[in-house]
Amino acid sequence: MLVHGSDPCVELEEYLGMSRSRTFVVFLVVIGIVTASGGAARAGGRGRRGQRDRTLRIGQLAPESGSLMDLLPSLTAPVTMAVDEINAAGGVLGRPVTYTLADDGGDAIAAKYGLDSLLVHAKVDAIMGPASSESTLGILQDIRDAHVLTCSGSNTAIELSAAGSGGYYFRTVPSDRFQGPALARLVLGEGRKRIGILARDDSYGRGLRSAVRKELTKGGAKVVADVAYDSHATELAGDVGEVVAEKPDAVIVLSLERDGSEIVRSLIATGLGPQQLPIYGADGMRTSGFASAVDFNNPATVAGIKGTSPSVAPAGTHNAFPEAFAATGVDPSFSPYYYDCTILTALAAVTARSNEAVKMKDAFASNIRGKQKCSTFAECKKLLEEGKTIAYEGASAGFAHMNKFGRSEPNAGVYDVWAFDNAGHSNAEPPDKQIRIG
Fold it and tell me: Where does residue 379 rank: exposed (0-12), middle (13-18), buried (19+ CB within 10 A)?
């Protein structure tokens, strides 16, 4: 375990360019040690959340290792910015909020170890994350058993809408139930009629694939090939061949960076790169490392690939976060959604007058549906302390009431349209090109 003051933490603080007085712990997973702590957690270390000192302890599960680790700054920087904002406004319940980071490893097994670390050692009341839907599905029962409020800004799997968490799980990013139609409308709007689909056979790929296909069919296009592939496979040429054989006029690839880059390389090998055949993707392929994963020496190979992703600055947002975050230089993928998770968690504690998750969870969504509009923690906190109800206008709010927020998630979404350029960078089209669903 590395505690605030050791070199890695100092380096991260310097990277973020911030000075903050809070506990910052980074847990490294050592299998033998963590297994023991996991046993302790199940034996009672995961008891009632909420400490007697009324300090709100926020933890985060984020990918310090694994296939999603390039996203780490995008997911952690907004949370630390929000914690700084909260503490600058006097904290919660008269005390500063603390923050602790643990590795989710980009998979459910590592996320379980990270969760145990946060519960047993840091004794957190709330958790931001994990990064992937698959990880969250793998620890959802643990979250429920531990009675710890959890909010993710990057879980988009449709399956999570119906997963039971006892009311402890929330997400601010919209489900792929909305991204599917957005991506399909992009493809249909460019006149594509014969579509081939390649999708991961996991919680991310299955739901998104179904939503895309439904909207394509509704829009008059024909899905000539629909291939679900093993997301752990290292050889995908055969799957690509099945799609190419049907002579589509466009291909939709619902993948993450590793497998998506393999599919694009296989398409190029058949003579059907993005310059010859329109290729579309979603947020999973919109990474800073995608171009080099396809061809390290020639990033222009991916030029022309385009797609959709949850908007990082929805048109009509009345929140200063997107502009403030842009000054950090960190890729904003999913960042506004994590910022909103953190602010809403703190506001839930203010409303509940408690840092106990069992009370905070009942207040979480109420702060989106009240009467008085506010967009900063300080402003919202003041209104709550005056006994008023609030309608928090978050950084991700493209629709009223935080994208028509329901019991635990948005019921609408705004999507950026992006494309890779010759340098391998993904660029979003202007806000008037965003696709609004809901």
Answer: middle
The conformation of residue 29, written as its DSSP 8-state character, comes to P
For residues 434, 80, 290, 69, the Cα torsion angle rounded to the nearest 10 degrees is -140
Q: For the domain 7-175+319-361, what is the CATH code?
A: 3.40.50.2300
β-pairing, 306-310 vs 279-281, is parallel
Domain boundaries, the chain: 7-175+319-361, 177-313+413-437
Instruction: Report CA 158 to chain centroid distance, whole Å.
Output: 13
Q: Domain 177-313+413-437: give its CATH architecture.
A: 3-Layer(aba) Sandwich (3.40)
Same fold across 7-175+319-361 and 177-313+413-437 = yes
- Count Cβ atoms below 10 Å from residue 167 Cβ, excluding itself: 17
Q: Taking the model in full, what pTM does it have?
A: 0.89
Give, for all 438 residues of the chain, the pLDDT tens digit: 333 333 333 333 333 333 343 444 443 333 343 343 444 344 344 545 555 679 999 999 999 999 899 999 999 999 999 999 999 999 999 999 999 999 999 899 999 999 999 999 999 999 999 999 999 999 999 999 999 999 999 999 999 999 889 999 999 999 999 999 999 999 999 999 999 999 999 999 999 999 999 999 999 999 999 999 999 998 999 999 999 999 999 999 999 999 999 999 999 999 999 999 999 999 999 999 999 999 999 999 999 999 999 999 999 898 999 999 999 999 999 999 999 999 999 999 999 999 999 999 999 999 999 999 999 999 999 999 999 999 999 999 999 999 999 999 999 999 999 999 999 999 999 999 999 999
